[in-house]
Write a structure and sequence with these properties.
296 residues; globular; single chain; 14 strands
Amino acid sequence: MIKHSTTLAAFGALVCAAGIFYWAHGPGPSARVSKASQPGATSPRPAYPEKVAPSGPVAPSKPVDSSDRLPPTEATTPLHAGEVLEFAADVAKLSNVANLRLQIIERRNFFGKSAWHLQAFARTENPLRMMFELDDQFDSYSDAATLSSLQYEMHLNERGEKQESIQRMITNSAESAAAPNATQTHVVPGTRDPLGMMQYLRTVDWSKLREVHGPVYDGHKLYDVRATYAGGSENVAVPAGSFATSKIDLHVFDAGVEMKDARFTLYLASNPTRTPVLLEAVMPFATARVALVKMK
């Protein structure tokens, strides 16, 4: 089964590549997600909402250390439409076993809510591709103010097996799946998907906050992710260049228990966009280093 392929080239997460692979290829459905509908076969076409002109600036709230903390206004947010980040993953002693592309497509109206359309593409490369062919696409429509997930899509193609999942995140009974090919998934307010979580970490002013946390739904299961500031001004060399960075440790909790067999460290550049430049992951089967290769 695709959903049991587990963290092959290391994100499902935050939301870089290793986290996304880990969360997106998690161990399967969980009863912790109250009334959650399981991903099922849907139309192969993503459920795109009506495209409209971007809305005005989003007013920030008080900066608090919680899952519903608001990021800066649109004028000062490090996120911007059209950004493309390309990464290469090294696993164990194998180099460039997978490539990941993270994109911020645009800010748009999502059924009446201002949202970011976030996208990721993951592809394995030889020699790993000869054993495990993977061409996956993930789409997130995340609230422009909080980066909480409005809709999460997985368009998976692994070893020739395809699976389509479009899940509309529902937090109360008054909401409904606005698209006919979307499945309702009931989550707690403030829940983010892996792509939204990654981008949310970029909006945090780590010079003022030392820890943020919140629920993350990977398409199968609900986790709690805690990000802690582990130091700044550390120079990190990646193919895209050398960057002064802030070091962020990511801790994943399942039913209140920290997952000790999966540890992630994210390095955000100390630039205005807080670009994610490196993710180091330690997992049961290997260690991984996902490094920025190109950005535009």
